[in-house]
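Annotated sample (chain length 334).
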Amino acid sequence: MQVSAGEKQLKKGDYLFKEGDASDAAYLVKLGQINIVKTKGTSELVLTTLNKGQMFGEMAFFDQKPRSASARASQDTVVISLPFISLNAQFQTFPQWLKLMVRTINENLRKANLRIKNLEMAQKGDEKQFPPHMITRLGAIITLVCRQYAKTNESGHHVINFQKIRDYTIQIFQTPTNRMLKFIEIMQGMQLLKLEDLGEGRQQLVLFQHQLLADFVDYYNKWLFTEESKRVTVEAKDIKLLKTLQHYGEQAGADDKGKAKVNLTQIQNDSMKDLGYLVSIGDWHGLIERGIISEMISEATSVSTLFELAEIQKLYSFWNIVYTIETNDPGVNG
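Output written by the structure step:
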């Protein structure tokens, strides 16, 4: 590739400058793509991605501060260098009022960027990244944007431009995007959605189970605001039991009142073979005490229980989401 004077050619992965370097020029992306990245521990957080025609590094023209982040080529890239010495010569020809206006705009942009940067950073210490109301907020952002902007692909799934999710997360709900990205990563692991890379810094979010996520947000939000004494409480240890009830309940089927009856003695005998874990008859007492399933029904050689199949399916789906998020919360397990 022929590179003209004032241009710099970068291979994929090359750094144009690194965090802490002296600032001596602004740059314009002529070809390719630049990631602005911030070091976080032993990894790097991508703050933004710049494509052809976008400028960066210009704010340091006024205060000459060291680079606050690194610039790395995410593909083979050509940038045009705009040295501050040359820019200053041009700047001095501006009328005084125009100089003041440009400086003011620059200061406002820097303040705005600092605010966004603070939002991007995860809370330190032992604070949970996903306290209950954060879970409902992140889920609500996705479902809200989906209802407003999503298109349907050939498979019938909802597809959203991820930039719209990012805009709502930061600008409207003032929530760090690193939390949204982690939330999406967890949801992706549960096969509820998928974040797809389209190239050139573009991404889209595909929702496989939009209605399930929307129903979960409504349910969990209502649960959080229900008086504690009136809540149906599900503990982490109950998830396997709910999964077991769903599995055998769906096999048995529900009656005309929506009730399913399962043989707990048979479950004790078959659960290891069918599900890969043992469920003993004594494991059910907690769900019985909380009214999630009926008292044990004694029969000739076994005991059974009754429950509303649709309610068990709902509890398993929703609380599995809650505890999967909690298990993957860096603030709890990091």
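Annotation: The chain has three domains: 7-120, 132-226, 232-325.
Annotation: Residues 1-5, 122-126 have pLDDT under 50 and may be disordered.
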